[in-house]
Amino acid sequence: MPKLLAALALGAAALLLAPRADAAWPPLPWLVRDAAAPADHDAGLWVYGQVAAGFSGRFADAGDASRFDLGRAEVGLAWLGDAPDAGLVLQLDGVRSADPESLLGVDGNALVLTLSRAFGVVRGRLGDGAVTVTGRLGIVPDPFVAAAEEGYDLRAVASVLADSGGFFDRADLGAGVRVGLLDDAVTLDLAAMNGEGASQLELDDRLNVHAQLEVVPWRPRFLGGEGRLALVAAYRDGTRGAGGARDDRFAAAVTFTHPRLGVGVETALAWGFAQRGDRDALGVAAWVRGEIVPRYLGLYARYDWEDLDRAADDAVATRLHVGVTTDLPAPDGVLGRLRVFVGYRAERFGGSAGAVPGVTAASDADVVLVGIEAVGVAR
Asked: What whole-number distance in Å separates Cα of residue 327 and Cα of residue 324?
C-alpha cells in the first residue's frame, strides 16, 4: 500500500505542477507511417525519436513489486529528397538483449541498440496525380502495424494489439509496394518479407506474402482540427522458423482519430502462433482517448482480450488500461511533445493462458504506473 500511495502522489504532483504547452499534431509523422509518403514533407534531413519511461507498482497474487521501466527508446534519421521523390530511413531501438522468456543476453540482460528500420523509399505519381505508387526495400515496417498505429496516441502505454499481442513483428526484411487512389483515400499494400522479424535471419525457404486494403472515407473538420476515419483489413500467408511452421494472419482495424480525440477497434486471428504451427490464437482490442481540457487534462482507456490457444480451455488473457495525461512544454524548434501520464492496468489470466509477451508468468495483477513520454522530430 505505501508503494501505491507514493506512485499516486507522484503522479498527482506531476499533473498539478506541470506547465502547459500547445499540443502538436501529428506528434511524429515518421513514427506512425515510417516515411511512406515523403512527398508530404519538406526535403532534407530529419531526426526523430520517442522515449517513454516510468515507475510502476505491481500488486499480484505471486507477490508485490515495484520497478522503473523504459518502455520505448527510439531514434531515427529520415532523409527526404526533392528530386527524385525518394527517401532513406534509419532507426535504432533500445531493447533488452535477452528474449522475454530468457534471463541472460548480452552482458547479463543489458539494453542494446538494434537497427529496427533501414530502408529506401521512392514515390511516383501516375497520370494527373490521382494514382500514387510508393516502393520500399530493406528492413521495412509491417504494413498492418503501421496502419493501426496511424493516429494511435497511446504507444507509451501499450503498443497496438498486432505488436503487443505477438501477432505481427514491427518490421522485417523485405520489400513492399503501396498504391494510392483518390488522394490516398483508398490504398493497397503488397509486401513480401522473410517472416522472421527484423532481428532474425531467414530460417526457411518461403517468403511471407502480405496483402492489405485501407479505405479512408471521411475526413471531417471540427474543434479546430481534421478527423480521419480509417478501415483496414490485411491477410498474410506466412511461415516461421527452421521447420517452416504455419504463421498465417488475418487482421482488421477501424479507427477514428482527431487532435482532440480518438477511438479504435482492432482484431487479429492467427493460424500458427508463438512459433507453433498447430496453435491458433485470437485477439481483440478497443481503445479511446480524448482531451477533456486541451493540454491540461486528457483521459485514455484500452481493453485487450486474447485467446492465446483456441484449442485449450480457459486460455484467455485480458488487460484493462485507464489513465490521465497532461502535456509539458516542448523545446523550441521541435515538433513534438512532453507528456506525463498516470495510469492503472488490470491483468487477468485464465488457467490455461500461460505467459504472454512481456509477462514471464501468468499471474493476475493490478498495476499503478507513472510515466513521461518525449516524442519529437526536428530538421
From this structure: 11
Helix (H) or strand (E) holding 200: none
Distance between CA atoms of residues 151 and 306, nearest Å: 23
CATH of span 2-378: 2.40.160.10
The 10s digit of each residue's pLDDT in 59-81 is 998 789 999 999 889 888 888 77
Cell of 67: 520497478
Contact 321, 300 (CB under 8 A): yes
DSSP string, 232-284: EEEEEE-EETTTTEE-EEEEEEEEEE-SSEEEEEEEEEEEEETTEEEEEEEEE
pLDDT band, very low/low/confident/very high, at 201 (cuts 50, 70, 90): confident
H helix or E strand, kind and range, residue 154: none
Res 104: pLDDT: 66
Higher pLDDT, 17 or 94: 94
The Cα-based distances of 91 to 62, 74, 75, 109, 373 in angstroms read 38, 7, 6, 22, 18
Pairing of strands 225-226, 221-222: antiparallel
Entry field: residues in the chain: 379
Residues 6+ apart with CB under 8 A from 138: 117, 118, 119, 120, 173, 175
> At residue 261, what is the residue type?
L
Unique residue bearing C-alpha cell 510502476: 56
Residue 151 has φ and ψ, to the nearest 5°, of: 85, -10
Give which of 166, 212, 152 is closest to 307, Cα–Cα.
Answer: 166
How many CA atoms lie less than 13 Å away from 151 in the CB half-sphere? 28
